[in-house]
Amino acid sequence: MLTSTVCVALSAAGLAIALLTAYRRRFRRATMIAAAALLPVGLYMTGLVSLAGTVVRAVADWAAGLVFKPSVWAGFAVLALAVVLYVLARVAGRRKAVPEAKGRAVAPGAGAPALTQGKKPVPKAAKTDPDLAEFGEIEEILKRRGI
Prior knowledge:
Elements (H helix, E strand, L loop, with lengths): L1 H22 L3 H11 L1 H8 L1 H21 L1 H33 L21 H5 L4 H13 L2
Helix pairs in contact: 1-2, 1-3
């Protein structure tokens, strides 16, 4: 009886807020509030509120028994071991995959520049321009590395 009263009161309050929101011409928001306001009554009418109460009581009984049963603590230790083994396997899998990627066969001359003879010299006007001086430095570094 008390559960039904609380659910109806929650729904009534939510619908009142939805009406005030609709009065302010925020119809989309009012519709969303009305949908949420109808949930408590719907949950009570379908019996899910009492089911949730039963689940909460069952979890509370399990938690109370957790303190006094060594077998439950052993179960948690086994679960922790399983998680640690899973994480270690994932880490080891990632470390093993990195050397395999580096060990691929490379075609001979693949690291050499594609065009060695077709380079065009930079015009002298570009070398003297102060705005392009930075690009000249970058180009020099790239030439040293063979790019």
